[in-house]
Amino acid sequence: MAHVIERPLAQAKAFDVGVGTLVAVAGWLLIFAARDAAYAVPALLGGFLLVAPLGAIALYEVSAQIEDGVPLDANLAWGAWHRNAGAIGMLGLLQALALLAWERLSALIFALFLGDLTPHVDNLWRELLFSGNYTALLLAFFGSGALLAALVFALSVVTAPMLMDEPVDVVTAMLTSWRCCMKNPAAMVVWAALITGLTALGMAGLLMGLIVVFPWLGHASWHAYRDLVEVRSGGPAA
Question: For the residues of 35-81, what is the DSSP string, one character each?
Fold first, then answer.
């Protein structure tokens, strides 16, 4: 699959940089909005993984255009969600609810373990990760986050690209995603680990890495979907 992914990266550089920049700017705005609520910073950044597939729909369309051998059409890519607007909107609502649930769960964990002693946002990561004073909090935070992320991943790994590609409803797409994970557990675990690791890497350095990482993951996710769900414009094959 590597040589297939290289083509979108080579042919859609300007578009990819634009999308990646928008994502990085959105991340900076979230951090700024959470500057007075330190617990919300890791919660919102972690929540990025929950909603990222929906934000990559334009990238899926670009990958589809290149796959079909047609000229790149940025306007068509940005408007790709119109193709199945109702189902994609429902997916967006479900992902927003998942993000809200994660933010509330994070707030509860921080409140239970810290009370009013939450580190200032400027010192948050250093204090949490390197002071050695927050082991129990980190275990609860990352443990609960991993469980929620695993569930969301299983239900959404191919859902967004499928909704853009096929005239199906969100329940059908989510069940297809679940079946893909159940049929390919080892590959899905590796893919989830790559997404998590590359996203974390992209978030390092003031989120600048997302300018490159997010488009790459978007194109790769499209090709993962095409490998897992083979039938196009004829219903799901998984």
Answer: TT-TTHHHHHHHHHHHHHHHHTHHHHHHHHHHHHT----HHHHHTGG
In this structure, of 9-13, 56-60, 107-111, 135-139, the range with the lowest mean pLDDT score is 9-13
Q: Which of 172, 183, 184, 178 is nearest to 156 (CA)?
A: 178
Buried b / exposed e along 159-193 (16+ C-beta atoms within 10 A): bbbbbbbbebebebbbbbbbbbbeebeeebeebbe
CB-count exposure of residue 197 (10 Å: 0-12, 13-18, 19+): exposed
CB within 8 Å of 166: residues ≥ 6 apart:
84, 173, 232, 233, 235, 236
H or E segment to which residue 26 belongs: helix 13-33
Q: What is the mean pLDDT of residues 76-98?
A: 93
Q: To the nearest whole number, what is the mean pLDDT of the chain?
A: 84
For residues 209 and 202, what is the distance between their CA atoms, to the nearest angstrom?
4
N-terminal to C-terminal alpha carbon distance within the chain: 19
Q: The pTM is what?
A: 0.84
Asked whether the predicted pLDDT for residue 8 surpasses 70, the reply is: no
Look at residue 117 and give its three-state secondary structure: coil
* Distances in whole angstroms, Cα of residue 192 to Cα of each of 20, 154, 224: 20, 9, 12
The yes-or-no verdict on residue 3 having pLDDT over 50 is no
Cα distances from 84 to residues 164, 167, 200, in angstroms, run 6, 6, 31
